[in-house]
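Q: How would the C-alpha cells look for this protein?
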Amino acid sequence: MSIHPSTPSKSPPQSGGELRTDAPSCMAAHVMHERCAEDSMDDPLQKFTASIAFVPTIVLHCDSDELLDAFKVVERGNTLTLGWTSHGSGHFFVEVHVPTQSIATVKKTSSGVATVHPSVLKRGADISLRSAGSGMLLVQDDVVEATGLSLHQTGSGTIQIQAAAVIVSGVIMTEVTGSGQVALVADRVAANCMKLKGCGSGATLIAVNSTVNITGDAKVEVTASGGVNVVSDSFSASRLHSQVTGSGSVDIHTHSRFGAATIESQVTGSGHIQVVGQGSTERHDVSITGSGTVNSTMCASACDVKIMGSGYANFSDLNQVAAKVIGSGRVQQLTLVRLQPPYEVVAMPVPTPTAMPESARNWLKKAIFG
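A: Here is the predicted structure in C-alpha cell form.
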C-alpha cells in the first residue's frame, strides 16, 4: 500500500469513479498485493483512524470480478476498515483519498506493501503505526511532528519511517515482537523521551544523519536474540539505560559527539551492549551476569562495574573504573577498529503503483464514496 498526496480538483466525480475533494490536498493510499488475496473481514487489509472533515474516497483496482464483489469497507466513527467478505484470488491495489494531514493511526494486518506518502500524517497528535504479519508499512514525510510516536511490529513484517525531521514533544516508542523490523531514518530526531523495545529475533534501527536530542531518558530493552541499533552523528540524553536479557544486542554509535549525564548498561546472558563515539558521562554503571559483553568508549568521571560469570567489560579509559568480579570475567582495555569508509544506511524506497495500470492485466475499478 502506498499513501501519497494527489492533485486537488473541484470537478465532480468522474464516470470512472474517482472523487476529487476541495481539500488543500488529498492523499491516495494504494494497497498492492502480488499474491492471491486471502484476507477476510476478520483479518482486514488496513485500519485507518483519523479525524476526517471530508468524505474519503476508496478506489479498488483488481483483475478479478471475485475480488471486486468481495471488497468491503466498514466505517465506524473516524475508523475505516478495509477487507473482504469472502476469500478470493487475484491481484489488486487500493487507493484511499483523505484530506491532507488527517491520519493519526494506521494498522496493517495483512501481507503486501502499504506506503504512506508526505502530507498524510496528522501534525500535533499522537501517531500510532502498527503492523502484524509479514507485510511492509513504509511511511515517508517531510516532517513528522507529533505529541507521541508509537511503532509496533508483530510478526515478520517491517515498519519504516523516513523523514527529514522527527519532532516529538512526548515519547518515541518502538516495539518489535517476533522476527520483524522497525526502522526510523531521518536527518534529525528530537523528543522528550525515547523507549526502544525488542522481544524475539527482530531488529530495530534508528539511523539519523545529524542529531538525536532526547531531553529526558533514552531506554533500550532487548529480550531474546533481537537487536537495537542507534546510529547518528551526535546523540544526547539525560540518561541512557540499556538492558539485554538473552543473546541480543544494543549498539549505540555516534560519529562525532555523545552526551549523557548517566549511562546504565545491564546484560543478563550472552548478549552485548556497545556505546561507541566521542563523548563523556558523569557516571557509567555496568552489570553483567553470565557471558555477556559491554563495550564503551565514553570517558566517565566514575565507572562502577559488577561482573558475575565469564562476561567482559571493555573500556577505552580504565582510569576511573571500580570493578567487582565474581567468576572468570574481566575488565580490560578496549581497542576499536574504525570502518573506512564509514557505512551508509539507505532506506527502502517507497513504491508507487503508477506503472501497474499500464500492464497487460485487465484492471477493473470499483469506487466507494463515503
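Residues 4-44, 354-360 have pLDDT under 50 and may be disordered.

The CA atoms of residues 122 and 308 lie 49 Å apart.

Upvote if useful.
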